[in-house]
Amino acid sequence: MNQELDFMFVKYARVWIPDVEEVWRSAELTKDYRQGDGVLQLQLEDGKELEYKLDPKTNNLPHLRNPDILVGENDLTALSYLHEPAVLHNLKVRFTDSKLIYTYCGIVLVAINPYETLPIYGSDIINAYSGQNMGDMDPHIFAVAEEAYKQMARDERNQSIIVSGESGAGKTVSAKYAMRYFATVSGSASEANVEEKVLASNPIMESIGNAKTTRNDNSSRFGKYIEIGFDKRYHIIGANMRTYLLEKSRVVFQADEERNYHIFYQLCASAQLPEFKALKLGKADNFHYTKQGRNPVIDGIDDAKEMSTTRNAFALLGVNESYQMGLFQILASILHLGNVEVKDRDSDSSIIPPNNGHLSVFCELMGVTYQDMSHWLCHKKLKTATETYIKPVPKLQAINARDALAKHIYAKLFNWIVDHVNKSLHSTVKQHSFIGVLDIYGFETFEINSFEQFCINYANEKLQQQFNMHVFKLEQEEYMKEQIPWTLIDFYDNQPCINLIEAKMGVLDLLDEECKMPKGSDDSWAQKLYNTHLKTCALFEKPRMSNKAFIIQHFADKVEYQCDGFLEKNKDTVNEEQIHVLKASKFDLLVELFHDEEKATSPTGAAPTTGGRTRLSVKPVKSKTGQASKEHKKTVGLQFRNSLHLLMETLNATTPHYVRCIKPNDYKFAFTFDPKRAVQQLRACGVLETIRISAAGFPSRWTYQEFFSRYRVLMIQKDVLTDRKMTCKNVLEKLVQDPDKYQFGKTKIFFRAGQVAYLEKLRADKLRAACIRIQKTIRCWLARKKYLRMKHAATTIQRYVRGHQARCLAKFLRRTRAAIIIQKYQRMYVQKTCYKRKQAAALAMQCILRAYMARQLYKALLREHKAIIIQKMVRGWLARQWFKRSLRAIVYLQCCIRRMRAKWELKKLKIEARSVEHFKKLNIGMENKIMQLQRRIDEQNKDNRSLSERLNGLEISHAAESERMRVEVHRLRGAEEDAKNNANKVATLLEELERLRKDLKNTQKEKKAIEDWAKTYQDEMEQMISELKEQNHLLKNEKNDLNRLIQEQGQQWTEKMQRALKEETQQLENDLNEERSRYQNLLTEHLRLEEKYDDLKEEITLAVNVPKPGHRRTDSTHSSNESECTYNSEFAESEEGSRGGEDVSKAILDMSLFLKLQKRVSELEQEKQSLQNELDRREEQFQRARARDDEEHKKARGAELEYESLKRQELESENKKLKHHLNEMRQSLRGSAEAGSAAPGSPPYTVLLDQLNSSNEELEVRKEEVLILRSQLVSQKEAMQHKATMTEPLPYIEDVQKLTDAKEISQAYMGLKDTNRSPRFTRRPTEVNELVSRLRSPFPDYHKLNEDGELWLVYEGLKETNRLLESQLQAQRRSHDNEVEVLRGELQSVKEDNNRQQQLLAQNLQLPPEARIEASLQHEITRLTNENLELHSDDPKEYKAYRISMLRRMVDLMEQLEKQDKTVRKLKKQLKVFAKKINDLEGGQMDVSPGQTTDEPVHPVNIPRREKDFQGMLEYKKEDELKLVKNLILELKPRGVAVNLIPGLPAYILFMCLRHADYVNDDQKVRSLLTSVINSIKKILKKRGDDFETVSFWLSNTCRFLHCLKQYSGDEQFMKHNSPKQNDHCLSNFDLAEYRQVLSDLAIQIYQQLIKSMESILQPMIVSGMLEHETIQGVSGVKPTGLRKRTSSIADEGTYTLDSIIRQLNSFHSIMCQHGTDPELIKQVVKQQFYIIGAVTLNNLLLRKDMCSWSKGMQIRYNVSQLEEWLRDKNLMTCGAKETLEPLIQAAQLLQVKKKTDEDAEAICSMCNALSTAQIVKVLNLYTPVNAFEERVSVLFIRTIQTRLRDRKESPQLLMDTKVIYPVTFPFNPSSLALETIQIPGSLNLAFLTRV
User: Fold this and answer.
1) Which of 358-367, 630-639, 1274-1283 has the lowest mean pLDDT?
2) Which of 188, 628, 1282, 1466 could be stapled to 596 by a disulfide with Cβ–Cβ 3.0 to 4.6 Å?
3) How many CA atoms lie within 13 A of 1490 on its CB side?
4) What is the pLDDT of residues 1537-1590, one digit of tens each?
5) Do 1098 and 1112 contact (CB within 8 A), yes or no?
6) How far is CA 808 from the centre of its chain?
7) Do 275 and 235 touch, CB atoms closer than 8 A?
8) What is the dihedral of CA 733, 737, 738, 744, to 10 degrees?
9) Phi/psi class of residue 671: alpha, beta or left (left: φ > 0; alpha: ψ in -120 to 50)?
């Protein structure tokens, strides 16, 4: 021991030291403790140093603190150190930090009142705790209730839950929640809702038994024990209540800040109600009994509303309105009695003034006389042996008598109410077992303690003794079970204290004896107590300063009792004369209150409970005559002692469960912990005694496997053996030297207190040493890596430094050399520059000088040159002038001479011309010469002309040159004159030049100034431009930003709109899913009620058949579904079957309940129909977005309808033509027969005529049948499309709706005008315009239009118009063919046609009926082709139009043929009849002309056609229907079908049978088959509903059957994926849409049953596999556990693991795949499976503190990843199953993330979006370190999380609802399997089915 102390009390060890304020404070050793040290060196948590002195006598060391990983444990016994400070600190941490109000302390549940409403009592929490082991979940009142319920069912032993605590600790609330748990989990065995009545008793008892005190606003002022009875199936059947020690004194007196019982204030608050006017009440402040506390109002409580609740509770418990008013009347009279004023008459007497208003009201309400009551209130009767005296009493005694009467009346009323509550809760069914809930006061000690506190503490002494014995017994049983040597454990025995109170000559005995004394008083009783017990009993003491008090040492504390009032309260005397006055009352209820005890016995046989200081009977009392009066004289103490003994007998006969309620503070502050008050209550309620008893033995207990897992680190490899027990023994012998510190049991190891902490320290030291070693190695590795990095860095640095230095030297040398070179070139450059500058200056000077000289020379030369030019020009001009004068003179001279010579010559010629001879002579021989000359003259003339032209040119040029020269001379003269003038102006010009130079200088200066200003302006402009550019840039940036912002906003708006659209779409989907869920839930409720109805029918049948009554249990977990028609049929059958035993059943069954259920069923069916309509409306709203895509389809559909209408009319006209041709043929045959041209009367003609007549009749019959069927189909279609009733049928309303075009209406009107001659269309010709106007309206009301059959009139008019047009066309055609040759040709062609028709008819009669139509059609095509050829030869255009119309008609005929082909198949029986007639005719023909060729083709054709035309139908007889259902449904083994045959084979077979019933038009057969199938499936589900394989099989087949009904219904939306052959197999006679809905409901029921079956299989696996099992071995650590052992996380044999869950999921998936379940349905099932796994796992995580750790988060995430891997393997990642695990994933991440800073809080808030705020806070509060290296979550961090998440709008519900089932949908999944290819195996025993 010393070694261990030295080991534990070392430096840094933490201890607890006493403290005045906090009771206990934590401190840390700053120095190791050594043996013999008298002082401990400590440091408090606030850093203060302290020397703690040890007691030199005991030398006891302070209590050690538990390791941090044990702080906050669920069970206090799991603490290694079990002592008061450890318990107090653990409770404080759980309460204030983790907000956990429940904690286990061994077998005790400690409940701390939070003074705040917590969301931990909902139905989801109840469901989570239901069926769980007590240690597996966090502590809760529901866990205690579940343990009691489970032990009652398992051990067949009654249970008790003892709830105790002082006022305000929450006893009543805890008891209420326990009863609520029983009521919710067990339910009731009948329809009387007993559990509701049990809960309804609470508001009644609270109103009459609870009051406001200084410590509690709703304090129970009485004790109660409620026995909740159960039957053999453990359903609640009733309850019984016992009450103890009602505080009657509160009726007449209340301390400050307290109130009377709630019922009085409720009455006063409701005084204004009409029914309470007669009570003459007012405000509570007006009455003495309700105003003494001076605080009549409780904050947050509405007394008027509470009154309404109380009255409703009375009504629920069967107390009618008259009795309620009677109760309120008595209560009101008590208030008025308290206001009765008593005055002194003298010192020894008193009087009540006459006409006292309150006394008058009291007497009026109570039905007594005013005189008697006023008299006996002020007088009393004294009896002696001989005489009787009436003595007045003084005022004080009169007031006491008045108050005593009020208390007595209230006590009687309280007992009466308790009796009637028990009466209403009583059950006639035999009680098999019960669970008692004891809500009783805790230990009380005040400044002044009186008789009430004495009785309360006496009861607590008895309960504490029972508790100690039970704890001791459990400890002993545990030790014996584990075969550990048992030694007596010393524990506190309070039997001496009990003996002091109840033994002979005890306190109560002496009190009763003193009450019998005539002059007994409190003082004399006190002296007797002193004399009897002061010296003999150590537990009895006398106060030093008082002789009227005594002290008793109770188990919790010493209590001083004041003797004043003990005798009076014990006697509880009431003036008997006052009682007689009340008994004589006319008020029946008051008289009933004061009846004798045997008359007031409750229905259960128990006597009325006398609360308070009155009598209490627990068992039935069979009193004898006179016993009542004797019983009335018993004292309160005696009565209470007897009732307490009976209570202890009851508790000892049951298995007790303890709940200790703790009040954390006296100020009702939420989650505020006062250590002083808490430790007082812990000592008083026995929690610390439990700890002490546990600590005295071996409190810490481990299984061998848990010990090995936890302390494996303390073992070496050779110590590990295969036997875990031997391994643990060997290790413990090495670790713990003292063998007394532990014991080895069969399955567990038991440790003394502190040993687990010692082992934890060893483990922590070992782990710490391992960590240090790991750190050392890691640090060495890191240091070496750092050294190597530094070394490498140093060498690298050296290399780079040396390189840098070398480069610097080279750089220096290069720079030196470069400097020299630079200097050389610089100097050279300077010299060169100087030389160049001088050279340039010299050159410049030379250049300037030479230039000046050159300019002077140039000027001289220029002047000389100009002078020469002037001289030259002048001289030239003078020469030219002289030359011109000389030339003119010479020319003039020449002209004169030549003129003169010419004159001479002229004269000579004139003379010669005058002589003729001469002329002749001259002309002889000259003609030729003349000619020559003439030619020469001509040539010369030409030359002259050319010369003259040249001359003229020269003259012109010369004139031009002369003119130029003249102008030049003139210019030179002007220049000369100018030169002369300029010479004069030189001076002026020089002056002007000088002036201009000055102006130039000024201008240059101005220019310079302007340039400077321009430069400055330019700079300013540039600066301004730059600023403008900057502003422009900024504006551009701002513009870009705005554009970007606009784009972002646009994008945001777009995203927002998309998000809003997505949210709206999601909302619509959610609404649709909610509607589906509501509908399916309602369907489930409907099915449950139907099942109850079936069970009631079975009970009726059993009651009729079996004479003795009995009870038969039905499977309440099974649900069924019935269609409406099935339900009605079964109900009718049950009515018919039960008529014989109607009288007997009425005597047994409550028919009102039966009718109520029937009414409820009908209401649910109506609600189901309304929900179905609402669901359809929502689906229609959800699919509106796709309406645009369907418009084209609708248009095409409309065109098709028009086309079909036109085809129908053309077909009718064609039928008329065919009929006309047949009539002509018949007439021609008859005519030919009459003429005798073809052997008249011969047999062939007769037979042919008969055949023609029969075929004509057959055609007429077929036409009539087609018309009948068409009218039936149209009427059915109208009934489906138009639910409203119409005045007349609208068979062609779709065609009429298309007549909205005005042209069509006018045509219809014209047709009507033409057809008005017919009498059937002459009724209302004036209404056509009105009809046209109606039809032209945009939205015509066709129902209104058709009020008088107007639409039918229009339609008939159109038909008549078409017929008229056709007849006119035929008439025109006939008029064009009036010619004789054409007529003869036509007659010839008709004859030929007749012959062909005869031949064809003869051939057709030999064919089977199916081939005749084809042959007729072929003939018609040939005829039309011939007509086409003829028309083509006549008129090509007309032929083209006619050909187009004929082609259309041919197409129409083909389509009409296909449609009528179906109709022909429907009428197979009629066709067989017609075929028989034809065969008879052929037989007659054979008799006339024998021939066997007509019979031979019939049979060979018909036989192969039956094989060829197999239509995928199965025929069965009506009597084989039961056999079909039995073999195919009831006795079918799913496994064999799933493995060997095609999936869905039963569904295909049933549908093929249904097709045949539809084919033969047998509606009874269809209805019977569908009803039998649905009922049989329900039967097999009811019989084998727990078998997943069976349910999956029938879910798959029901869906396939539903898909077949849709696929072959004929609706276009379901025929898109059909093959042509499948379209031929569509149903043709019946519309089974209603049955599709019934089958859909049945599929929903099967799906829900499948989910329930799957859940029942998965539920036991989930918690063990997902949470408890260590999938990753060694990650999770096992912490020490307490008495409430949790489920081990070690995988033992039979424990479920994650592999078990995955194997089960594989099994589910493979079964559904084998059964051919739709892939979409499999996805929905898998999604539901994963939701259940995630929800159950998360709920258990939120309710298990031991699971909230970092390592468990890793385990969960690994498990989830395995599930996701399974989804990937199965290609189910898109089914939404992964999303259902998101809350669990986020919870696991929350366990692993860092939880310290604000950034961590922000990350958590953004990460955990699938978790609610309550769930996040709960996980953070529950987070528990498993190892010492982990840290807890601080309270500040949790508050930060709460602050950040406070704006979330979410449900406050903590747990996920595991009962949620997602609404299921069945998407249409057509099958590609052809029905005609299905073969029925012989193993199904269906040989009676015939393929058709």
Assistant:
1) 1274-1283
2) 628
3) 0
4) 655 678 888 999 999 999 889 888 888 889 999 999 999 998 888 888 888 999
5) yes
6) 77
7) no
8) -10
9) left
Please state, in angstroms and rounded to a whole number, the distance separating the CA atoms of residues 1700 and 101. 36
What is the spatial distance between Cα 603 and Cα 599, in angstroms, rounded to a whole number?
Answer: 11
Checking if the pLDDT of 927 tops 80, the result is no
User: How far is residue 1064 CA from its own chain's centroid?
Assistant: 15
Residue type, 651: L
Give the whole-angstrom CA distance, residue 1792 versus residue 1757.
Answer: 10
Instruction: Please provide the DSSP assignment of 1335-1357 as one string.
Output: HHSSS--HHHHTTTTHHHHHHHH
Cα–Cα distance, 1589 to 1583 (Å, whole number): 13
Q: What is the largest CA-CA distance in the chain?
A: 240
Q: Which residues pair with 112 in a beta bridge?
A: 662
Residue 765 CA to residue 714 CA, distance in Å, equals: 10
Say what the pLDDT of residue 799 is. 93
Contact in structure between 1362 and 1209 (CB atoms under 8 Å): yes
**Strand, helix or coil for residue 1828:** coil
Cα 489 from Cα 832, distance rounded (Å): 124
Question: What pLDDT is stored for residue 265 in this prediction?
Answer: 94
DSSP string, 1462-1502: HHHHHTHHHHHHHHHHHHHHHHHHHHHS--STTTTTHHHHH
Alpha-carbon gap, residue 950 to 1045, rounded angstroms: 93
Sorted by sequence, the CB contacts under 8 Å of residue 1355 that are 6+ apart come out as 1292, 1295, 1296
Mean pLDDT (whole number) for 1677-1706: 65
Structural contact between residues 452 and 459, judged by C-beta atoms closer than 8 angstroms? no
Contact 1157, 1085 (CB under 8 A): no
Q: Provide the mean pLDDT of the chain.
A: 77
Pick from 1513, 1608, 1502, 1612: which is nearest to 1559 by CA? 1513
Any long-range contacts for 676-683 (C-beta under 8 Å, 24+ apart)? 676/23, 678/88, 678/91, 678/92, 678/112, 679/23, 679/84, 679/88, 680/557, 681/165, 681/166, 681/169, 681/442, 682/84, 682/87, 682/88, 683/556, 683/557
Q: What is the DSSP string of 379-403?
A: EEEEE-SS-EEEEE--HHHHHHHHH
Give the closest residue to 1721 by CA, choosing from 1867, 1536, 1567.
1867
Here the tokens at position 950 are 């040249």
At 562, give phi and psi (nearest 5°).
-90, 130
Q: Give alpha helix (H) positions in 549-674.
A: 566-571, 576-583, 588-593, 627-632, 636-652
- Distance, CA of 1740 to CA of 1855 (rounded, Å): 9
pLDDT tens by residue, 116-145: 888 888 888 888 888 888 777 889 999 999
Phi and psi at residue 620, to the nearest 5°: -60, 135
Residue count of the chain: 1892
Would you state the structure tokens that stand for residue 1254, as one six-digit string? 């029969």
| DSSP assigned state of 1529 | I
Cα(1692)–Cα(1695) distance, rounded to whole angstroms? Answer: 5
pTM comes to 0.60
Residue 663 · residue 441 · CB < 8 Å: no
Q: What is the spatial distance between Cα 874 and Cα 466, in angstroms, rounded to a whole number?
A: 169
Residue 1675 neighbours by CB under 8 Å, 6+ apart: 1751, 1754, 1755
Do residues 610 and 642 lie in contact, with contact meaning Cβ atoms separated by under 8 Å? Answer: no
Q: Cα–Cα distance between 1416 and 42 in angstroms, integer?
A: 121
Over the stretch 1013-1036, which tens digit does the pLDDT of each residue have?
Answer: 888 888 888 888 888 888 888 888
State how beta strands 379-383 and 236-244 pair.
Answer: unpaired
